[in-house]
Specification:
Helices cover 38% and strands 16% of the residues. It is of the alpha/beta class and 197 residues long. It has a single domain, classed as Nucleotidyltransferase, domain 5, CATH 3.30.420.10. The protein has a 6-stranded mixed beta sheet with strand order 1-4-3-2-5-6, with helices on both faces. The relative contact order is 0.20.
C-alpha cells in the first residue's frame, strides 16, 4: 500500500487517478459516532487484480478540507470515472453527496440478487468478502478504532487498504451473479494509465 500524508503528493496522485476508467473507493471516518464526524482516510484502488493491498493508496485527509474538495472536483464529479463503493450513501456524505457522478454501489447490486443465489448470511462487505469471495482472516475489529489519532497503526492501515481489495473482488463476483455481459472485460482490460506507476 501507499500511505500518502503530504498534501502535494496526495494532489499529484489524485491527478493520476483522474486518468482511470474505474476506481474502487472507501473512507474511514474519525468521530463517526459524534455530531462532528471527520473524514480521515480515502482509500483508492485502481488495479482490481490486487488481492494483497499492494496497489491501494491511502490518502490521509484528516482536517484537510482543501484536499477533500480537490478529490471531489477531480474524481467524484468526473462522470468519465466509474466510482465503486459498498453502501455508497454513507461515503458520499463526505465525498460530494449528490454532486457525485457515475457511482456504483455494490450493496445495491447485492440487494437485487436473490438470496438463494448469493447464499450469504448478510450483505456486509466483510461477510461478502468471506462467504462470496473466500477471503480468509478478514479483520473486522479496526472499523471501530480511533481514526482521528495520528500516527495510525500498521493494523489500521492494513485494514483500510484491504477494504478496497475486498470491494473489487465482491464487485466482480456480484456482476458475475447478475449475469452482466463482459464482466471480464471490465476487470481485465482496464487501461494501463489507471495502474500505479
Amino acid at each position: 500500500m501507499q500511505y500518502l500524508k503530504n498534501s502535494a503528493d496526495i494532489k499529484t496522485q489524485i491527478m493520476q487517478f483522474a486518468l482511470a476508467k474505474m476506481l474502487w473507493l472507501d473512507t474511514e471516518i474519525a468521530d463517526w459516532n459524534t455530531s462532528f464526524p471527520r473524514l480521515s482516510l480515502i482509500q483508492v484502488l485502481a488495479v482490481p487484480q490486487d488481492y494483497t493491498g499492494e496497489d491501494v493508496y491511502l490518502l490521509d485527509v484528516l482536517d484537510k478540507p482543501d484536499l477533500v474538495i480537490f478529490f471531489i472536483n477531480k474524481i467524484m464529479m468526473n462522470h468519465q470515472i466509474e466510482k465503486v463503493f459498498h453502501n455508497a450513501s454513507f461515503d458520499l456524505r463526505y465525498l460530494g453527496d449528490k454532486s457525485a457522478l457515475n457511482v456504483t454501489c455494490t450493496l445495491k447490486i447485492a440487494r437485487k440478487i436473490k438470496r438463494e443465489i448469493l447464499q450469504v448470511s448478510n450483505l456486509k462487505l466483510k461477510t461478502l468478502a468471506v462467504e462470496l469471495c473466500s477471503f480468509l482472516d478478514v479483520d473486522t475489529e479496526e472499523q471501530a478504532s480511533d481514526w482521528g489519532k495520528r500516527p495510525l497503526t500498521d493494523k489500521q492501515l492494513k485494514y483500510a487498504a484491504m477494504d478496497t481489495v475486498y470491494l473489487a473482488a465482491v464487485h466482480r463476483r456480484l456482476l458475475e451473479h447478475s449475469n452482466y455481459k463482459n464482466v471480464s472485460n471490465i476487470f481485465d482490460m482496464l487501461p494501463n494509465d489507471s495502474k500505479r506507476n
